[in-house]
């Protein structure tokens, strides 16, 4: 993916004026009383759950450029207004991809009978001819293995298989979906099947974004269920050809006008210093985006609602950004960084909630030396919800990546993701998969940590500048969908 970079001279001058961290200090008794007014209502009022029902059951899928995405923008504006939080929209141009028909068939041979395969087009996939595309399947387990096949790929359907078993495996295998189809296209494949990136499956395909670089015509690319990927693997291992017919009716329509939704609780003392709370408003067009990312949306909205009730307001400004188009383009994140380039050095902390509605496990940071010592004294109010500890993992998120060149410190509430990839990017990502108590606990943690960053005397030290990106290899760009 490309990220927005500030000119080096402007960045240097702005960073020179960046607030510097102060010595660590513990919260006062009055500040700890605020914790009771944030954590208590987050746990007891059920407001986040009510809002999650509104965006999932009420609005439904929210793929960028769709009527659902536009309805979500208007819902967010109405909701912020009802909460007494100032909000507005900022324009974003987004891609408009439409799924269409999708079916596949294992063709009969002398060794086995034919049968349907359960597939789902990947976002960004090309269409097949109306009659479909038929080809012999060749299986690979890595992009490196694909590169060794040479002429064997031409005219074939490439099956990208893998061994994902736990959430941590997602990062290991996601490039098979995001980059694999384009690499296969360059090698002459007529279509690709990607084993769903799943930790559980009841014959459920998982969609997601794939990317084709300029000059590479998109080929049909579909996810296939774990069960069907295993079937194809067994048949291929048995020897002899395995042939599949694939029909996809995907369309890439002209780009659409859309919006980020931005809201603020103005700081009382240092309003120019900004704490950003982010989540993405869009979802895939299957399921209703309850975990991905309706839960994140309602958590940061609820944090703003609760903070807006506090008198006096926190020391710094808390800004909520509901990004559009995280799933298949990061257009909202890039548009925000460009529109707010001049003030990025005054973004003193940023959080992204995009890991579902699981219970909180602790707090993470991505900041300079000494950040942990500043934050640790403020964590005691979160002991009761199971997240009063600092974790070793770095905070971050896809929609925060355009903030990296500005060296914005990141903080995060790490959540239990044990079952997140059971339903990720599927028809099953619905409200019933979110536990109300877990959602409430994570909401409480987000609200308190937003207050901590906005209220503590010092700011997080900025992290070192990110390393310069390596020269891009000849191949497709990385997927921005998470």
Automatic annotation (TrEMBL):
Signal sequence bounds: 1-24
Compartments in which it is found: Endoplasmic reticulum; Golgi apparatus; Lysosome; Secreted
Domain Peptidase M28: 260-447
Superkingdom in the source lineage: Bacteria
Keyword terms, alphabetized: Carboxypeptidase, Endoplasmic reticulum, Glycoprotein, Golgi apparatus, Hydrolase, Lysosome, Metal-binding, Metalloprotease, Protease, Secreted, Signal, Zinc, Zymogen
Main location: endoplasmic reticulum
Assembly, per entry: Homodimer. The monomeric form is inactive while the homodimer is active.
Protein name: Carboxypeptidase Q
Organism: Hyalangium rubrum
């Amino acid at each position: 993916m490309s990220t927005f970079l500030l000119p080096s001279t402007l960045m240097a001058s702005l960073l020179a004026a960046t607030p510097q961290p102060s010595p660590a200090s513990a919260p006062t008794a009055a500040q700890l009383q605020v914790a009771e007014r944030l954590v208590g209502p987050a746990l007891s009022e059920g407001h986040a759950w009510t809002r999650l029902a509104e965006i999932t059951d009420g609005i439904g899928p929210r793929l960028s450029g769709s009527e659902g995405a536009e309805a979500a923008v208007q819902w967010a504006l109405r909701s912020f207004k009802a909460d007494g939080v100032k909000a507005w929209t900022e324009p974003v141009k987004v891609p408009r991809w439409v799924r269409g028909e999708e079916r596949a068939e294992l063709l009969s041979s002398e060794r086995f009978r034919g049968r349907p395969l359960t597939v789902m087009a990947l976002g960004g996939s090309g269409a097949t001819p109306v009659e479909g595309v038929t080809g012999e399947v060749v299986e690979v387990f890595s992009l490196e293995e694909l590169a060794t096949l040479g002429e064997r790929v031409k005219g074939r359907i490439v099956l990208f298989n893998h061994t994902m078993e736990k959430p941590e495996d997602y990062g290991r295998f996601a490039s098979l979906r995001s980059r694999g189809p384009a690499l296969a296209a360059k090698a002459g494949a007529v279509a690709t099947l990607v084993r769903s990136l799943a930790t559980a499956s009841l014959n459920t395909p998982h969609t997601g974004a794939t990317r084709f670089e300029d000059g590479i015509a998109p080929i049909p690319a579909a996810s296939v269920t774990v069960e069907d990927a295993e079937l194809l693997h067994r048949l291929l291992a048995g020897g002899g050809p395995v042939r599949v017919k694939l029909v996809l009716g995907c369309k890439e329509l002209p780009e659409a006008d859309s919006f980020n939704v931005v809201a603020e609780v103005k700081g009382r003392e240092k309003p120019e210093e900004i704490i950003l709370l982010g989540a993405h408003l869009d979802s895939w067009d299957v399921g209703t985006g309850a975990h991905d990312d309706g839960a994140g949306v309602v958590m940061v909205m609820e944090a703003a609602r609760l903070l807006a009730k506090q008198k006096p307001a926190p020391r710094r400004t808390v800004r909520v950004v509901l990004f559009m188009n995280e799933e298949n383009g990061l257009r909202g994140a890039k548009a925000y960084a460009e529109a707010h380039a001049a003030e990025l050095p005054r973004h003193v902390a940023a959080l992204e909630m995009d890991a579902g509605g699981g219970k909180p496990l602790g707090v993470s940071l991505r900041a300079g030396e000494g950040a942990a010592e500043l934050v640790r004294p403020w964590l005691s109010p979160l002991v009761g919800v199971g997240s009063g500890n600092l974790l070793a993992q770095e905070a971050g998120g896809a929609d925060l990546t355009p903030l990296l060149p500005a060296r914005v410190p990141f903080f995060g509430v790490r959540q239990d993701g044990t079952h997140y990839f059971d339903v990720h990017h599927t028809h099953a990502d619905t409200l019933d998969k979110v536990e109300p108590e877990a959602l409430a606990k994570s909401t409480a943690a987000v609200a308190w940590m937003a207050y901590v960053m906005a209220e503590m005397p010092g700011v997080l030290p900025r992290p070192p500048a990110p390393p310069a990106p390596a020269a891009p290899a000849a191949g497709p760009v990385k997927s921005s969908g998470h």
